[in-house]
């Protein structure tokens, strides 16, 4: 878990300004710290330098958009993250061992390797099958207690149990458990996935880690099954449904809203929510 509030604040700042030239000085100044001191605490908390973290997120976000924005020019996606065409191709290839054009051509519409089970392939349904299960809905803002993590999604179960135990006094009948995901594990190294685990609370809750998750328009898919199958469903929604739906994902990030969890069998009922415009 990332416990330093300034590091959490700096990550929010970085994600909000990925389409700009962000320097270490910019981030340190935003947190009112010297760049040398801030660089040390950032790396201690995340395991990465600020520079490496920013470049990685730019490459991962752009790779995700190459998958789902099939009609947008590669050069335009590179420009969105501050890269000229030749520079973007060079940096992307160095980071992913493949050029942006090859990456886009190779992105699967029927299946994708499962990084959590190396001997398995995640196979997708058709667009029509996903589309009949997706509803478009406006969600209200959520006031939540929030903890941020960088690591493997496989650790989510333990992290959730620890989180629920820590905040059990805040649980009510209408409490929602929510994950906010910032990483696509088909693009991001699985031990570097960034995500928040959250619990809805009253607006007057005095905990230091209370924040608001923006609502708005979402495409919502009700998932009812094994935790191990969530990756396949999410990849199908992005690679097949979103890429062909006519909708685009906006600057918000995806949410998972839990309705029930069977810890013994690791089965869940949850809404997979994609923010759209």
Can you put this structure into words, describing what you see?
The chain has 277 residues and is an alpha+beta fold. It has 2 domains: 102 residues, Arc Repressor Mutant, subunit A (Orthogonal Bundle); 142 residues, Regulatory factor, effector binding domain (Multidrug-efflux Transporter 1 Regulator Bmrr, Chain A, Alpha-Beta Barrel), CATH 3.20.80.10. Helix content is 39%, strand content 25%. The protein has 10 helices and 10 strands. The strands form 2 sheets. It has an 8-stranded antiparallel beta sheet with strand order 3-8-10-9-5-6-4-7, covered by helices on one side. Strands 1-2 form a two-stranded antiparallel ribbon. Strand 9 and strand 10 form a beta hairpin. The radius of gyration is 19 Å and the shape is globular. The two termini are 32 Å apart.
């Amino acid at each position: 878990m990332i416990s330093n509030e300034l590091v959490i604040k700096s990550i929010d700042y970085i994600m909000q300004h990925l389409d700009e030239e962000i320097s270490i000085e910019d981030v340190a100044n935003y947190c009112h710290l010297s760049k040398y001191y801030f660089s040390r605490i950032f790396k201690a908390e995340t395991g990465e330098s600020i520079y490496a973290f920013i470049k990685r997120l730019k490459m991962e976000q752009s790779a995700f958009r190459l998958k789902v924005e099939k009609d947008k020019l590669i050069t335009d996606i590179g420009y969105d993250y501050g890269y000229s065409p030749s520079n973007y191709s060079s940096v992307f290839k160095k980071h992913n061992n493949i050029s942006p054009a090859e990456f886009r051509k190779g992105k699967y519409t029927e299946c994708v390797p499962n990084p959590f089970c190396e001997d398995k392939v995640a196979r997708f349904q058709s667009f029509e099958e996903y589309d009949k299960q997706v509803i478009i809905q406006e969600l209200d803002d959520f006031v939540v207690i929030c903890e941020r993590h960088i690591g493997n999604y496989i650790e989510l179960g333990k992290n959730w149990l620890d989180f629920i135990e820590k905040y059990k006094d805040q649980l009510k009948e209408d409490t929602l458990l929510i994950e906010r995901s910032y990483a696509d594990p088909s693009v991001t190294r699985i031990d570097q996935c960034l995500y928040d685990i959250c619990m809805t609370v009253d607006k007057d809750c005095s905990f230091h880690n209370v924040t608001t998750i923006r609502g708005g328009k979402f495409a919502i898919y009700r998932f009812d099954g094994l935790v191990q199958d969530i990756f396949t469903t999410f990849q199908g929604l992005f690679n097949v449904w979103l890429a062909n739906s006519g909708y685009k994902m906006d600057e918000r990030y995806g949410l998972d809203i839990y309705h029930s969890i069977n810890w013994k069998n690791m089965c869940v009922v949850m809404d997979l929510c994609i923010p759209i415009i």
